[in-house]
Amino acid sequence: KLLSTKQMLLEAQKNRYAVPAFNIHNMETLQVVVNTAAKMHSPLIIAATPSTVAYADPAYLVAMAQAAAQQNNIPIALHLDHHEDPSVIEKDIDTGFSSCMIDASKLPFEENIAKVKTVVAYAHKYDVTVEAELGKLVGKEDDIEVADTDAIYTDPDDAVEFIKQTNIDSLAVAIGTAHGLYKGKPHLDFDRLQALRKQIDIPLVLHGASDVPDDMVQKTIELGITKVNIATDLKIPFSAAVKDFFQNNPTASDPRKYMTPGKEAMQKIVEHKINVCKSANRY
Ligand code: 13P
Ligand code: ZN
Ligand code: NA
Fold first, then answer.
1. NCBIfam families from the xrefs (predicted)?
2. Ligand 3 (ion): which residues have CB within 5 A?
3. CB 3.0–4.6 Å: which of 32, 69, 209, 215 could bond 76 by disulfide?
4. Which residue CA neighbors atom 3 of ligand 1 most closely?
């Protein structure tokens, strides 16, 4: 059975590790994150952005994730990442998604709260967990692009009020990470994270974890991050390996052959990220 993120994030919070949320796009990438997490006994959040859900079809994703949950003895959640439309979220919850993020971070504070509340009211009826974001991450994720000049870091007092009013299950914080790759080294506001953790008791989520040095990710986990979102760092080695395969085998046409090096390359980085999250051997 697919689980919400409630229990797995509380466990992580208690034991000071993070649950990795890997963005997948198709059967192959879903298989890689599931098989690797199962092999390493790590809890797993399978994340899909709106365009992934549209590309792969919600019912196909749910069916694959359910098969994964049935066949493996680890907690697995199927999560709607960066969804902006409550009606789409409701429809996908009906299809079987077990967790969601309503991203209304672009809206003014009160409007963000109002939108998140409608999603919480629906999701909690079905034991589906809700993540929301306060502040604004820069970079490009899916079709959502935010310019560097529009970055807003999460204010701890606002966050307390936001959580009180919305009753969300976890909060995505903006502390200097960005979606995609960085120009140079990221600058993370660890003091702000510490202040947030001090005032907030629900699990905190780090977006944009690709291209953040491992020691910095681990420091955020030590300071209270319990869910780490990773997309770009998986896509690059997968596609690089497939490109490489075609370079060496220009006449190849069997997807089972040319996808396999991509899956193998992705598996290595998934293993590495699970180790960074310290989520192995928890189940
Ligand atoms: P990265 O692509 O930087 O890993 O960001 C992923 C993310 O935040 C998905 O929500
Ligand atoms: Zn994100
Ligand atoms: Na990133």
1. cbbA (TIGR00167), PRK09195.1 (NF006626), PRK12737.1 (NF009374), tag_bisphos_ald (TIGR01858)
2. 208, 210-211
3. 69
4. 208
